[in-house]
Each structure stands twice: as C-alpha cells, then as structure tokens.
C-alpha cells in the first residue's frame, strides 16, 4: 500500500484551463516529498486534489489504499491534512485555541481528547502561550504556525503543505523545517510545494518537478543537480552545487546538492590526496 497514488489525473477549471494533465504519481508511506515548478505549473491544484478539495475530471486518486470519492471525503480528510498557502484562508476563529479545536470538534471527539490534541499541536508549533489570542492580530508567520497546528490536531497520517516557508523570516523557516523533521520522525508522509531549491535539496527524499500541469521528472533530491531539468522547471541549482561547479576539480563530477553531500565529497577528496602524498 502507498500513501498516495494518482493515476492519469486530469483537471480543468471552469474557465477551461487544464491545470493538471495526465498526472500519474506514486508516493510511498513515510517519505518526504518536495513538489517544485514554475508559477502556474499546477502545484496548488495538485495538492488540493489530495484531500478531496478538488476532484479530477479524469483519472483516479487513492489515499492509503482508499479511492478518493465525494462519498468518503470525510474519511480522506481525517487521513490527509492540508495546510493552505495563505493562512488567512484557514485561520478564522475568534481565538487560536478555537481555531485549532475546530477540526477535532468536527470529528466529534470528546472534550478531553480535544484538549489533549490542541495542547500537543500548539506546543509542537510553539504557539501554546498564544492560545487565547485572536488569530486576526497575529503576524503572518504566527498565523501560519496556527494553521499547521490546526492540521496536526487532527493527527493525519499524511501532511500536505502548500509553500510552508513562503514569507517566513529565516528563523521562522528553520522552525518549520524542524517541525517537518519532527513529523517525519513520527512516521508521517509529508508532501510540500516550494520554490526553495536549497531547502528541497537538504530536506526531501523524493523530488517531483511539475510544469504546465505535467510531470517533468520524479527522482531523489539529486534531481536538483540535473541542469537540464532545473532549467526546464525555471529553477536554479542549489547554491552548494553552483559553488562546486566553479571548482575545476569537482565540476565534472556529480555535484553535491546539500551540506552533507558536499562534506562527503570533500572528505573523499582529502583522503585521496593523503594517499597520493604519502
Ligand atoms: N480558481 C481558478 N480558476 C481558473 N484557473 C485557475 C484557478 N486557480 C488556478 N488556475 C490556473 O491553473 C493553473 C495552475 O495554477 P496553480 O495555482 O495550481 O499553480 P502553482 O504551481 O501552484 O503556482 P504558484 O507557484 O504561482 O503558486 C494556472 O494556469 C492558473 O492560472
């Protein structure tokens, strides 16, 4: 069984724009997936299909072995939590607490369970002390964290985030990255869209490149060092790959795409140099 299976999915908006064209994609359980592509590639449209918010015109989607249909939308939303790109589309209650409790209350959980889930979820995103505040008065980054807490409180197995780092300051981005790592250790499958190749290169196990509603390529994070695809997807190489490309000794090798890979490559190079000298 896989976390997500999309089979020949096509989706058209009412104005006739075909935003997804024949998408076939399999995402195994527990992986960290980054979806990248130019503006208008169809990333948000694709993510909105995964919790039944949008339904394909053609093709099928299954989540943890269950076909997504209008009838089982409730069940699918328990399995898949979707964090929208703009927290103002998601955070609307009078207090932070009520906002995070909204989902669990809809699932008719007991007050005791709701208390526990909201406390843990708000603690996870570092927002427990804001629980009585009005979301309206929070900063963008704080609202984003409340939106994530609202999803975590439902304890979904699959967490989908549409550009979770957008408009966050660097420290806020690091916090979200840490939170995502924590979710990964909890065994969740995570799929997010991003324009940040450096983050995707250091975080993702699996990279999906989308362009004009079609899948351009799927692979591990080393895909982000493939200049052909990078150019086609309007991206640029991760900064470490660009740096190593400038060094003649490394430029013809497989380029490292993150700090770990760079360290491994340098270490190997140093060892080989030692062998030669002694
Ligand atoms: N509500 C809508 N009605 C009609 N067309 C839409 C609608 N939302 C998106 N589109 C169109 O569908 C295509 C895919 O848009 P989508 O928002 O999914 O792209 P994206 O990859 O998420 O872009 P970005 O990186 O800018 O967020 C675009 O051509 C867009 O103009």
From TrEMBL:
Q: Which locations, inside or outside the cell, does it occupy?
A: Cell membrane
An annotated GO cellular component: ATP-binding cassette (ABC) transporter complex
Q: Which UniProt keywords apply?
A: ATP-binding, Cell membrane, Membrane, Nucleotide-binding, Translocase, Transport
InterPro entries the record matches: AAA+_ATPase (IPR003593), ABC_transporter-like_ATP-bd (IPR003439), ABC_transporter-like_CS (IPR017871), ABC_transpr_CbiO/EcfA_su (IPR015856), Co_trans_ATP-bd (IPR005876), ECF_ABC_transporter_ATP-bd (IPR050095), P-loop_NTPase (IPR027417)
Q: Which residues form the ABC transporter domain?
A: 4-237
- GO molecular function terms noted in the UniProt entry: ATP binding; ATP hydrolysis activity; ATPase-coupled transmembrane transporter activity; cobalt ion transmembrane transporter activity
Q: Where is the signal peptide?
A: none
Q: What superkingdom does the record give?
A: Bacteria
Q: How does it sit in the membrane?
A: Peripheral membrane protein
Per the record, the similarity remark reads: Belongs to the ABC transporter superfamily.
Query: What functional role does this protein have?
Result: Part of an ABC transporter complex. Responsible for energy coupling to the transport system. Probably part of an ABC transporter complex. Responsible for energy coupling to the transport system.
Protein name, UniProt field? ABC transporter ATP-binding protein
